[in-house]
Write a structure and sequence with these properties.
This protein has 309 residues and is an alpha/beta fold. The protein has 2 domains: 3-173 and 213-238, Rossmann fold (3-Layer(aba) Sandwich), CATH 3.40.50; 175-209 and 242-276 and 294-308, UDP-galactose 4-epimerase, domain 1. The chain contains 11 helices and 13 strands. It has helices at 12-23, 58-65, 79-84, 86-106, 118-121, 142-161, 186-195, 215-225, 245-256, 280-286, 294-308, and strands spanning 3-7, 27-32, 47-50, 69-72, 111-117, 164-170, 172-174, 201-203, 209-210, 212-214, 233-237, 243-244, 263-265. Helix 1 (12-23) links the parallel strand 1 and strand 2 (27-32). The longest helix has 21 residues, at 86-106. The chain is globular, with a radius of gyration of 19 Å. The two termini are 36 Å apart. The structure holds nicotinamide-adenine-dinucleotide.
């Protein structure tokens, strides 16, 4: 069975992906520096290298393991940190990605799957919601710039060296194992605070719309991309439904039994007001559509945190 190297495999999405690949019978190798991922997320049937994706020793891993596929999820993924320290963001997300791609080129990798972001690259000022893949790319953060740059490098490596790729532009991914202490991941943040009876902050009027897509659906898109979407495809992975923060608050308060009201704060500069993603291309190319309803996904996530906080 083919071997897949998953970068970021100790993180939220990467660890679910590893579990699924192992279930499907793939051999899996993980590269993660544990800067944000957790040891307890590591699947014991995967081989683990604790290593920074920028490390020159990454070449030894490629030489030793000879992966058929690379699924690249390791990233600095805090948007506000990318604004505060764009240089660090570029070192990990751009230079780190280049280190991966150079090794793919040198060591005969067949295909790269890249975790891109629909939420961070389409940006404000596009009026064709839900965004499809032809929508203008207008990133409003260094993080978004890094994801676009990653896609351009993928294109270059495919055109020049024949390294195939699929870039998956995710909406806002949520589910078990998401970091409830992080900056991103409003669902995990709300659930933790509600279960611990802390106050809940909403920035702006709470009517900003996002596309929340369940982690298992995202993982399925990755597994399908190993054998479909060839020829350098860029594909949105979302639900085409915009959900407001106020709606999330209401649903999650019910699930957790939280009696309080949210505290509203001034909106954050640069925050995108509306983004959700058309998934027609995923349907055509991958045979993918989101299967989890928001209501069921929120309930599953709530149940996980009730047991695991
Ligand atoms: N969560 C979302 O809503 C979302 C949306 C769009 C795209 N993405 C992308 O999906 C990927 C995974 O995101 P996640 O939510 O699982 O985040 P995460 O932080 O849980 O996972 C990222 C993993 O990468 C590792 N990592 C970070 N820097 C590294 C480095 N220099 N070298 C090696 N490993 C490193 C971390 O330790 C962590 O385990 C990221 O590329 C992110 O940009 C996530």
């Amino acid at each position: 069975m083919a071997k897949v190297l998953v970068t970021g495999g100790a993180g939220f999405i990467g660890s679910h992906l590893v579990d699924s690949l192992i279930k499907e019978g793939y051999q899996v190798v993980i590269v993660d520096d544990l800067s944000h991922g957790k040891k307890e997320n590591l699947n014991s049937q995967a081989k683990f290298y604790e290593m920074d994706i920028r490390d020159s020793r990454l070449e030894e891993v490629f030489k030793e393991e000879k992966p058929d596929y690379v699924d690249h999820h390791a990233a600095q993924m805090d948007i506000r940190k990318s604004v505060a320290d764009p240089q660090f963001d570029a070192e990990v997300n751009i230079i780190g990605t280049l280190n991966i791609l150079e090794n793919c080129r040198k060591h005969g990798v067949k295909k790269v799957i890249f975790a891109s972001s629909g939420g961070a690259i389409y940006g404000e000022g596009n009026d064709n919601l839900p965004f499809d893949e032809k929508s203008l790319v207008k990133p409003l953060s260094p993080y978004g710039v890094g994801k676009c740059t990653g896609e351009y490098y993928l294109y270059f490596y495919r055109e020049t060296y024949g390294l195939d790729f699929t870039a998956l532009r995710y909406g806002n991914v949520y589910g078990p194992r998401q970091d409830p202490e992080g900056e991103a991941g409003v669902i995990a943040i709300f659930i933790r605070a509600m279960l611990q009876n802390e106050s809940i902050s909403i920035f702006g009027d709470g009517e900003q719309l996002r596309d929340y897509v369940y982690v298992e659906d995202v993982v399925r898109a990755n597994v399908l991309s190993l054998n479909k979407g060839e020829g350098g495809d860029v594909i949105n992975i979302g639900t085409a439904r915009g959900v407001s923060v106020n709606e999330l608050f209401k649903n999650l308060a019910e699930i957790t039994g939280f009696p309080g009201k949210p505290v509203y704060h001034p909106s954050r500069a640069g925050e995108i007001l509306k983004t959700y993603l058309n998934f027609s291309r995923a349907k055509t190319v991958l045979g993918w559509r989101p299967e989890m309803t928001l209501e069921e996904g929120l309930k599953k996530t709530g149940d996980y945190f009730k047991k695991n906080l």
